[in-house]
Amino acid sequence: MPTHVIVASLRRPVILVAGVAAVAIVVAGVWSGSAVEAPDAGTLTIGVGRDLFDGPDSRTYVHASTHAWEALTILDGDLRARPWLAESWHDEDGARTWVFKLRQGVVFHDGTPMTVADAVAAVERIRSRPRLDPTGVYRNLESVEVRGETELVMRFSEPTPAAPNLVASYSSPVLKPSTYGEGGRLTGLVGTGPFRLVRARPGESIELEAFPGYWGPKPSYGRVVFRTVLDAQTRLLALLAGELDAVADVGAILPDQASALEGRPGITLKRVEVATTHYVVFNCRRDPFSDPEARLWLAGLVDRAALVEAFASGAGVVARDPYSRLAADWAFGLVDPPPGRAPQAPDRELVILLHGGTLQRWPYLEIAQVVQERLRGAGMASQIVVREAGAYYEDVRAGRFDLAIQPNTLMTGDPDFFYAYYLETGGRTDCGCGGGALDRMIAAGRTAVEHERRREIYRELQALFSRNLPVLPIYHDVALYAHGPAVEGFSMDANFRPSLVDARPARAR
C-alpha cells in the first residue's frame, strides 16, 4: 500500500499524494462526500468525526460513547473515580490489595446475570494481553480473583494508590466472557449498558437500541444511531439540514465553525471542557530538540496563547498543566517554560509530523503552518508531513520526525497515565526526553500511598517538567457540540460521552 503524505508549506501549495484513505481537502461552503440520511422518528441520530467501531481486537468492540458497555468505575467531572459496576471499594495491605464490591441485579444484554466471575474474566482478559493494555495500567497486577459472592479482589506487586482511577472505563469493561475468542478477540458485544448493539457498519454507523433490562435509569430514546461523517463541513451541513439530530464528540465541531451555528434558529451550540490536551511532541533523540534549551526556545517562539486565540478561540484553554486541568487533585498550573536558547540550525529540513485523521477534528495543520513559519524566520527549513494512522505511529516509534502534534486524553484521571505514556523510559511514546530524575520521580509518584505525599511529588515533577519541557502542552480542549430542535436534555461529559440516557425528544411547544 502506498504511503499517503501531505507536505505543506506556507510558501508553496499543499501537495496531496492520492490514495484509498487520503485526507479530504474541503473548500468552505462546498458539501463533499455522500449524503447523510435523515433520522427516523423516535431515533436519536448523532454525527461524529471518527469511526466508533473499535473492532474485535479492541478492549470494548465499540466506543464508550455508545453506552453499550460499562466498567468497574467511571470518572466524574473532576476526574475522580466514582461507582459504576462496582458500588464501593477499599484497599488492604498498604494499597497493594484492592477490594471492589460489585453491584447486584445487573444483567447482560442476553438476559443472564452479571457475576463477579464475569468481571474477573474481563480484567484478566486485559491484564494477560499487553496489546489490550498499551498504557500498562495492569503492569503490576499479580492476580485478580473472586471473594465471596460480591467482591472482586486485585493484588498488586507494589502499592497502587490510584487503583480505583486506573480501572475506570476502558481499563475494566465487563463484557460477556462467551464473546472472548482466541487470543482474547471479541466475537461480538454483549455488555450491560442502557443500550445494546444492533449493528455496526465499520466506517459508516453504529446502531443501538434501548435495553429494557438495564439496572439504572431507562433512556427515553428507543434507538440511537452514530453516523461516521469524517468531513467537518459535511457534519455541519447535515446538522443544519436536519439530517443529524446532534453532532457530538471531541473535535466534532471545529472552532471556526462556531459562528455558523451561534444564533441559528433551532440549533443549540454548547461547550464543555474535556480531559483532552493537545501537544507538540519533541524527538529528543536527535538535534536540535535533544537539547532542553532548544525545546524551551521553541515554546517561546510559537506563543501558545496566540495560537489558541487564533485557532481555538472559545474552544481551548492555554495549558498550564502537562495534562487536563480537570484533574482537580493534580492540577498545579506550573507549566510556564522559561526562555530558552536558540539552537544552531541543522543542515536538513525539520519534519513536523501530523496524523491525517486529526485534521478534520482540530486545527493542527494551521498550528503546524505557524510553527513552520516561525522556524523559517529563525533560519530553519521544515516540511509538514501528514501520515495515515499506522504510518504516523510507525514514524513516531522510529523517530522519523522532529516535532509531532497530537492529542492525549487523561483516561484514568491520574498523572501517572500521562508521565508513564510520554516520559518514562520504555513508555508507549517514549521519545527520549525522560530518564534519570524524571524516571525516579515518576516511580515515586506511582507508589506513594499518602495522598498529600503524592501531591507533593507531582507538584515537584510538574515544576521539573516545566524547566525541561520534554513535551509542549499547547491547550486543553473545550469541545464544541450542538443539537437541533427535536432534542432536549442533551449534554456531553468531560470524557466526551453524550448523555444518551438523559436526552429526550423535545416536547411540543
Strand and helix map with partners:
Blueprint: E1 6-9, E2 12-16, E3 43-48, E4 53-55, E5 61-62, E6 73-75, E7 81-83, E8 86-92, E9 97-102, H1 116-127, E10 141-147, E11 151-156, H2 163-166, E12 195-201, E13 205-210, E14 223-228, H3 232-240, E15 246-247, H4 258-261, E16 268-282, H5 292-302, H6 304-311, E17 316-318, E18 350-355, H7 364-377, E19 382-387, H8 389-398, E20 403-409, H9 415-422, H10 437-447, H11 451-468, E21 471-483, E22 487-488, E23 504-505
Parallel strand pairs: 3-14, 3-15, 18-19, 18-20
Antiparallel strand pairs: 1-2, 1-19, 4-5, 6-7, 8-9, 9-11, 10-11, 12-13, 13-14, 15-21, 16-20, 16-21, 17-21, 22-23
Explain this structure to me?
The chain is an alpha+beta fold. The chain folds into three domains: 6-18 and 275-477, Dipeptide-binding Protein, domain 3 (Roll); 43-54 and 193-267 and 484-505, 3-Layer(aba) Sandwich (D-Maltodextrin-Binding Protein, domain 2); 69-184, Periplasmic binding protein-like II (D-Maltodextrin-Binding Protein, domain 2). Helices cover 21% and strands 25% of the residues. It is built from eleven helices and 23 strands. Strand 8 and strand 9 (97-102) form a beta hairpin. Helix 10 (437-447) runs antiparallel to helix 11. It is globular.
Provide key terms for this protein.
509 residues; 3 domains; disordered N terminus; 23 strands; Dipeptide-binding Protein, domain 3; 4-stranded antiparallel sheet; D-Maltodextrin-Binding Protein, domain 2; 11 helices; 21% helix; alpha+beta
